UniProtKB/TrEMBL annotation:
Belongs to the universal ribosomal protein uL18 family. Transmembrane segments: none annotated. This is one of the proteins that bind and probably mediate the attachment of the 5S RNA into the large ribosomal subunit, where it forms part of the central protuberance. The gene is rplR. GO terms for cellular component: cytosolic large ribosomal subunit. This is Large ribosomal subunit protein uL18. Keywords: Ribonucleoprotein, Ribosomal protein, RNA-binding, rRNA-binding. Part of the 50S ribosomal subunit; part of the 5S rRNA/L5/L18/L25 subcomplex. Contacts the 5S and 23S rRNAs. The keyword Transferase does not apply.
Length: 119
């Protein structure tokens, strides 16, 4: 029986996360979620089980509501880097989830790196 797209996505997501957890113990996790209309990112402390910082195109203060393009992804990447620095986080590992590392996901990661977050 063939797996559905969702099942394949979940397998890919868990595979990526488990590999990252083994090799990056003690660092925060920068988790990305991309939908058809929005993109969001969270800086998660897995040890404490809490979100340290977050950014999303759904925030009215950023002026990106409903935008899901490369410019919005870049803006979200630089915003999360600023908020991470404000929280005292200098480095994190990039959890792309089940999403491929290209397009909006890559633009977000590159913008976060340029803003000073070590990924």
């Amino acid at each position: 029986m063939a797996n559905s797209k969702r099942q394949l996505f979940q397998k890919r997501r868990l595979r990526v996360r488990n590999k990252l957890r083994k090799s990056n113990a003690g660092r925060m996790r920068l988790s990305v979620h991309r939908s058809n209309k929005n993109i969001s990112v969270q800086l998660i402390d897995d040890v404490a089980g809490r979100t340290v910082a977050a950014a999303s195109t759904l925030e009215p203060s950023l002026g990106l509501v409903g935008q899901n393009n490369l410019e919005a992804a870049s803006k979200i990447g630089s915003t999360i880097a600023e908020r991470a620095k404000a929280a005292g986080v200098e480095e994190a590992y990039f959890d792309r989830g089940g999403f491929l590392f290209h397009g909006k996901v890559k633009a977000l990661a590159d913008a976060a790196r340029e803003a000073g977050l070590k990924i």
